[in-house]
Amino acid sequence: MDTPALQVDAEVFDQALERLKAKRGAAGGPTGWTYEHILALTQVNADAKNAALGFVNLILSGELPRHSSLLDSSLIGLQKPDGGVRPIAIGEAWYRFAALCALTKCASAGKALAPLQLGVGVSGGVEAVGHAVKAALAADPEAVLLTVDMENAFNSIDIPAVMEAVKERVPALGPVLDWAYGAPTDLHIVGAPAGTPPVQSRTGMRQGDVLAMLFFGLGIQKSLERTRDAAPGVVVVADADDVNLVGRVDAVRAAFRMLQGPQGVGGIGLRVQPRKCAVTAGPHDAAAQLAADLSVQHRPEGVTVCGTPIGSAAYVAGVLRQRADNVISQIGKLMSLPLPLQSKFALLRGSLSLRMAHLMRTVPWLQLQDDTGRVERAVLQAVAHVFRLPEQEASHHADIAVEQALRQMQLPLRHGGFGLRAVSALEADAAYVSAAAQAQAAVATGPIQSHPFAGEARLLLLPVWHRVHDAAAAGCEWEPSARDLPAEFVREALPRAQREVSRFVGDRDGAAFLAACDTTTDEGRRAAARLRSSANGPASAWITALPGSHSTTLADAHFLLAGRHLLGLTASAQLQPLPCHCGASSSGAMDHAMACRLLAAVITMRHNIWTAVWRLIIRRAGCATSLEPNYSHLAVAPVGRDAAGQRRGDILAVMPDGRIVVLDCVVTHPAASSYVVAASVETGSAAAQAERRKRRDFATFGQGSAFEFVPLAVESYGRMGRAASLFLSQLGDAAALHGNVSKAAFVRFARKELSCALCKGNAGIYAASLQSLAQRSGRHFQPGSAVRLEDADDL
């Protein structure tokens, strides 16, 4: 009896939708459908979502007619480093989403291919290949490594062989494989002249197909198994089509011939490229003879295995130097592009700064630290340029401020930094042993010589782990016995060591930076209040916000001033603050504009922007709203109406449970003289004090009211008061009840909108303070053309 086709339920469908959100911005196929369209459709109502689920299951059933609107792809040719072309097929969004649902349901199918195949469904599989290969070489000085490259593997693998493998190993995926690959499909060349006929895909997997990696891994698995069986002494470990053979010369020769021959990949349409294969390590003469016998390269200096350089110290250093040079070059190119500052910063923080990070999981820190440091300095320099931090300031005081700003940038977001972490030796060592532990789990059923925590490889890892354990055991709450790496600890806890040590080091650095603020001085108190206020998720949401919508897009001026505000710098990179005519004792402070009484009008504008975004969020949660409700109209008792007079709140909201909530917004500055003493030692005290004041004022006229009063307080650095955070959580519940968005996603995006709105308001205040300086310093001042920051409906 045939196995039924794979079908997904609502739970798996929702999991796939969550994964889809991380893939926003992915290109659409020939019809133009994108992941954003699918997400929007599933959020219309329950009927639309159920229809989408039904459609996905029809695709997976293989019962739909084969139609170009679902199976055609856009074809892009990407240039390879060696000058060749890598064809990428961008399939239709609905097929890709159905494939994502299938992959979510069949998560264990790829893991079952380990320890031979680590490129499919194995967490950290690429790094596990590097560790397994290094362990096998360490286990036997006579062992050689042969790296095997195949020509155009994904596009050449024999479809019938893949179908046979799928039927044998994951039969439920057979119908969708048959439907998607059972006949040729059209590939439309992107950028080709009008009228150019499509290219037909007749063989292989379409690169870009979400299921292609799993299908390929299933198709090649039998070849890997036969190779292993033909040479039992050889470690066989692959990342997709990149196969590595480690063992004595004669055994590797036998394994290679089996892999290359008709019982190996030669029987499934794949062809080994000897000129791109290489032998390294082992006895020099024997390795050279093996290379000659197999017509492959002999590279005694070393090779790069799945991104991990393995070989002599000089070879590894050369690879790392070139990698760092490439990243630094890309940083330079990025900074020369005419992109908004927000986009440049997002790319620097989220992409370029991580290009070297994976290497510390497979390369010892002693070899990596110099080149990683070069990349980190280049990233930090570029970010400093974004926020206009000069390399040298005019005064010693300014030099100290810039140095402190650079240090703050490197703190984690949760400690008021920008998350531009500089890797420490402790974190790098933890990353290295964590990756080795993940590799140990991946190859647990493979040959003992491939285990990173066995034999000689274990002896090489122990000093690294001892450094980590001795420095971080208390902070990470590891038992003393963990120092000896018992098997259970390696299996259960060690894979998490990198994350735990990174948090420990980040918390330690954040606490030290805060402790360095001298709270016996006005300047130190303001700095401590600023750090405490900005050290939380809502406050840093503008840093992680992407310019994907109007409400989360910051103009260059807004983004620049938001960064300098967080860093405690002046609005102008060239000018030090001058005493203000308002007469306040702190009028010469960098952040004086946030509380200056002469800027009352623009401070009110910031309040209005903050209020407008709150109203937008409340409406999006499905709640009716109105602006400036009159308290006297809502009071039940006459005494309440009389006391309220013409006082008004900011927003009235009608909640799904029937409650009427009146919200009063307030923005406070924790470094202001009235707040700073408490705010420098108690996190969130400025917002809490503002909440108490609002509730106290409301108590004088709120007796007998028919509504609930909620103060929406926020500090100028972004920390929200308890009442505001609780109300946002309630809106998340309402949104989840009203539509198909999760509470977490709703709250996360709302925080970004609120954070960006606050940045825009703060920027307006700083801009007004500079205009005020210009007005006082000359004659016949002209403010320039009026620029409307935002209308409430446009946010």
Sum up the structure in keywords.
31 helices; alpha+beta; disordered C terminus; four-stranded mixed beta sheet; five-stranded mixed beta sheet; globular
Which spans have pLDDT < 50 for at least 5 consecutive residues? 392-397, 786-795
| Structural Rg | 31 Å
Span from first to last CA? 58 Å
The share of residues in helices is 40-55%
Strands ordered across the widest β-sheet: 6-7-3-8-9
The quaternary structure here is single chain
Q: Which overall shape is indicated by the principal axes computed on the Cα atoms?
A: globular
Number of strands: 15
How would a crystallographer describe the biggest sheet? Answer: 5 strands, mixed
Number of helices: 31
Q: Structural class, judged by helices and strands?
A: alpha+beta
